[in-house]
Structures are given as structure tokens and as C-alpha cells.
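HOLO CASE FILE
Compound: fe (iii) ion
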Amino acid sequence: MPPSSAVALRGMALYPGWLDRPAQEALVADLRAVIAAAPLFAPHTRWGKPMSVRMTAAGRFGWYSDRRGYRYIDHHPGGGPWPPIPDRVLALWRALSGASRDPECCLLNWYGPDARMGLHQDRDEADFTQPVLSVSLGDDGLFRVGNQERGGPTESVWLRSGDVLVMGGAARLLHHGIDRIAPGTSTLLPAPGRINLTLRVVT
Ligand code: MD6
Ligand code: FE
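Model generated. C-alpha cells follow.
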């Protein structure tokens, strides 16, 4: 499928079903190795509450949060290095992001059946001219996208396994989040849940 098959979503580019089933399975195998090297953890919000999504990362930086705030750190909270970004993930970025630089962080979010992610902006990076690319794997997730400012009307779309979404240009700072996942809608993963990868340039 060529990149022209993108669907516009408030200035974001959605590539539905970009990854076929074998490509999704290969990616999951890569991600198992990432998780083995850098175990999932539950970041805490600024208010000390554990997030419902569990995370880890690959690349030069991983995203971290605790009472001191949200930030990128250059090692896993357990002390070891972040593993390298898998080649297959880099290839996706190079094919679809349109970015001039390679990603420095591949954040891996794991959603169990009851996990969600509140509306937020991705603004912990230094260069907003660089896009964020996201990959959905496993159960469907209800993605909501709003506006650059807080509030106002929002639109929702189900992100399905194999979908890729590029948030760049004027859409780079739109609020967005995951209201809920639909457990049991995909057979990709051995248990109900969803994986979301987000790739970014950090510096
Ligand atoms: C998710 N995604 O799909 C959450 N951020 O689970 C994000 O927060 C996100 O999909 C930046 C760009 C694309 C995204
Ligand atoms: Fe985000």
C-alpha cells in the first residue's frame, strides 16, 4: 500500500492496516526482545498516581515520569541502558514519517483491558517540526483527537492492529488520548490488551 492511502484525521495521517499480519507478528517478536532487555514499568503522574498504561522504551531516550515531572531519560529506571530501536521499526519511520532525522525514542505503551490514556499533548521534545509516528498492535483502541488548545470539539476513531498514525505539521501539538480499548478484538497477542509504539525525535 503506498503512502497515498493515508486517511486525514484533523491533519494527522492515518494508514489503516499498513502492517499486514506477518509484519505485525514480526514486530511483536522484536518487541518481546525489547521488553526482555528493558522490563515494563508503571510511570507515576506528577500527582503520584500510577498510570494505568505500562511502559518501556528503545533508543537513546525513554520517557519517564514521577513526582518530579515528565521527561526523557537516557537509561531504564532499573539502571540499565535502553535497547536499540529495532530495524523494522526504523524502516517504518523512514517510509512514513517524512522526517529529516531518525527517531531517538521508541516508546512502548502496554494497555491491559482497563487501561486508558487521558487527553494530552506530546510536548516534551525539543523540535516540534519533527513528527510523532504511532503504531497500534493487538486489541482496538478508541483514539480521541481534539485541538491545540484545551477543550473544544473532539473526534474519535478506533485504532486497529497494524494501523500507523503520523502526527506532524500543524497536527503535531493536538490533544489526543485513548478512551478505552476493546478487549478481545484482536488475536495478535496471547492475552487481551494493546501495544502502542510512538517514535519521536527528542533533542
Ligand atoms: C496510543 N498515542 O495510541 C496513544 N502520541 O496509545 C499517543 O499518545 C500518540 O498515537 C503522539 C502521536 C501519536 C499517538
Ligand atoms: Fe501522545
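CASE NOTES: Helices lie at 21-37, 87-96. The pocket of fe (iii) ion (ligand 2) is lined by residues 120, 122, 176 (CB under 6 Å).
CLOSED: yes
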